[in-house]
Design brief:
It is a single chain. By secondary structure, the chain is of the alpha/beta class. The protein folds into three domains: about 100 residues, Rossmann fold (3-Layer(aba) Sandwich); about 80 residues, NadA-like (Rossmann fold, 3-Layer(aba) Sandwich); about 90 residues, NadA-like (Rossmann fold, 3-Layer(aba) Sandwich), CATH 3.40.50. About 45% of the residues lie in helices and about 15% in strands. The strands form three sheets. A four-stranded parallel beta sheet has the order 2-1-3-4, sandwiched between helices. Helix 3 packs parallel to helix 4. The N and C termini lie far apart (about 40 Å). The structure holds 1,3-dihydroxyacetonephosphate and iron/sulfur cluster (SF4). The site of 1,3-dihydroxyacetonephosphate (13P) has 10 residues, from loops.
Length: about 300
């Protein structure tokens, strides 16, 4: 059986929208209607008129779609596709943290469970975290969670000293160290650097850029879709890419005249790779596994997500 054509046929027959994150396997990206970052995928889910969405990504992304589209069916091909970053904070831990900072505004990365989102004032993604924080009055304390590297990046970009940051991290991005950056900087003298704000090297790279240590070299700290746009628009021909390696497939496909070098071949998210073509086929055929969020949690989480979708 030609799995790809069967999937394309089935999704047309059943009128199902397939969304895939930039870190998905190449063959999964190829059968999707839309490939993008967390914010772009949430926006696509929110605006579709199709009744069923098949989410090729990790569980919190499908949950976010289920919250924004409560009248739709949201499927994920493997319920075990989790996220080590979203696992770093529970709703109970957040409630306790909030009780220690009464009056503070809570800003949570989209990489959180629905129950955690139901406790937030604002949700954000890597592409709009800075603007979300900028939209909050300067005199208000902020609790930012759960990614400490994205949090310290946002605090620096917004010049805030009243932001408390949860000590969570993504195992894939935390594994990209300053020494990986240094090695690739030395090896690829003319390459532009694209860095995801979840990387543990982000703060030190920002410091080095500010101190002029990188001279004229282009260094950009961007979400995965921001990286895609930069790869297309920049006049550079060579890029070192500091994020999960799944994005390289789309970068190379869309920019065949440019060269993309992963900062580390080991930057692989095992959860993203759980979504295989076989599982996508089974998911479409049997309409499994439905991601459901209890109504009371979805209603509370919706406001924080709507605020995220409103800020670009
Ligand atoms: P983006 O929103 O930049 O795609 O990031 C999502 C994610 O899970 C990063 O690890
Ligand atoms: Fe979560 Fe990290 Fe995988 Fe992104 S790369 S889904 S943050 S574990």
């Amino acid at each position: 059986m030609d799995l790809k054509s069967e999937i394309l046929k089935l999704k047309k027959e059943k009128d199902i929208l397939i969304l895939a994150h930039n870190y998905q396997l190449p063959e999964v990206q190829d059968i999707a209607d839309y490939v993008g970052d967390s914010l772009g995928l949430s926006r696509q889910a929110a605006k579709t008129t199709q009744k069923t969405i098949l989410f090729c990504g990790v569980h919190f992304m499908a949950e976010t779609a289920a919250i924004t589209c409560q009248d739709k069916k949201v499927l994920i091909p493997d319920l075990a596709a989790g996220c080590s970053l979203s696992d770093t904070i529970t709703a109970d831990q957040l409630r306790k943290w909030k009780s220690e900072h009464l009056g503070a505004i809570t800003v949570g990365y989209v990489n959180t469970t629905a129950e955690v989102k139901s406790e937030l004032d604002y949700c954000c993604t890597s592409s709009n975290a800075v603007n979300v924080v900028k939209s909050i009055p300067e005199n208000k304390e902020i609790l930012f969670l759960p990614d400490m590297f994205l949090g310290s990046y946002v605090a620096k970009m917004t010049n805030r000293n009243n932001m408390f940051i949860w000590a969570g991290e993504c195992h894939v991005h935390a594994g990209i160290r300053s020494q990986d950056v240094q090695e690739k900087l030395n090896q690829y003298a003319n390459a532009e650097f694209l860095i995801h704000p979840e990387c543990s090297c982000t703060s030190s790279v920002m410091y080095d850029v500010a101190s002029g240590d990188y001279g004229n070299r282009q260094v950009q700290i961007l979400s995965t879709e921001g990286m895609m746009n930069r790869a297309k628009d920049s006049s550079s021909k060579k890029f070192v890419v500091a994020t999960e390696t799944g994005i390289l497939y789309r970068m190379r496909k869309q920019n065949p005249d440019k060269e993309f070098i992963p900062i580390s071949e080991n930057a692989i998210c095992k959860y993203m790779k759980m979504i295989t073509l076989d599982k996508v086929y089974a998911s479409l055929k049997e309409e499994k596994y439905e991601v459901k969020v209890p109504k009371n949690i979805a209603q509370k989480a919706q406001l924080a997500i709507e605020r995220m979708l409103a800020i670009s």
